[in-house]
Amino acid sequence: METEDPPGVGLLLREWRRRRKLSQLDLALRADSSTRHLSCVETGRARPSREMVLKLAEHLDVPLRDRNGLLLAAGYAPAYRESPLDSERMAMVRSAVRAMLTGHEPYPAAAIDRIWNIVDRNDAMSLLLGTVPPHLTEPGGNVMRLILHPDGLASQCLNFAQVRAHALGRLRHQADTTGHRDLRELYEEVSAYPAPPGLDADPGPVDPTGIVVPLRIRTPLGDMAFFSTIATFGAPADVTLSELAVESFFPMDEQTDTVLRSLAAMGPAGR
Fold first, then answer.
1. What are phi and psi of 141, to 5 degrees?
2. Does residue 67 share a domain with residue 107?
C-alpha cells in the first residue's frame, strides 16, 4: 500500500506565507532575500539553509513546534526542545506558574496548554467548577469544553450566546492561524454542542458600550461577572513553554469581588 510523501519544506513555507497573507515580495523583503530565491525554495528547486528556514519561520511568526517541523522537512535537526512540564528542566517554569496562580487569589486562574487543556489551577477555580460534573473536570478539564458543554458552565451562563460566539471565534482564529488539526477538531467538537435548554445560541447585536465580553454566571452565592486576561512567557526557547499560558479571571463588579473575598476568608471548607 503506497503512502503519500510528507510535504517538502517549500510547500510548507508557502502554506505559512499564504496563511499570513503575505506575497513572496513581502516575505523576501522581510527576510532580506530575493523573490527569485524564495520562489525556488517554495517550488523545491532550491534547498534553503538551516539559517534561512529559521529566518523565514521567524518572519512568518511560525510556532516553535512547527519551526521544528520545517527544519525536519528541510533535512535538518530540530532547533527547539520539547520538555515535559513535569520534568526537572521545567521546575523553574512550574514554580513561576504556581506563583502566578496563587498570587492571583482570591480570583480564579488556570494554566492552559496550546489546546486549552488545564494543566494547573488555583483554589479559587473551584468556585467556577464546583458544580461541573467530573467528566468535564478530570484530569484537569479543557477550557472550551468547560465553557460550552451543556453540562458545564454553559448551563449557568447568563450571557451564554455572547460567550459562545466569543469563545468559538477565538478558537477558530487560533485554528486558522496555526493550521493545527487538533485545534480544528476541538473547534468542530465544541461548535456542535447544543445550547442548554432554554438558552439561545444567537449572540444578537454587539453591545457598543462594552469593552470586553464578560462571563456572567449564576452560582449558589449569587450572580457573578468576570473578565479574563491571558499571559504567556516572553522569549520562549522550548516548545512546551511557548505553548503555555495563564488565564486569569477578574471580577467585573463589587458583588463578585465581595463573594470571592468572603470565600477566601472562609478557607477551603467554606468553598
1. 95, 165
2. no
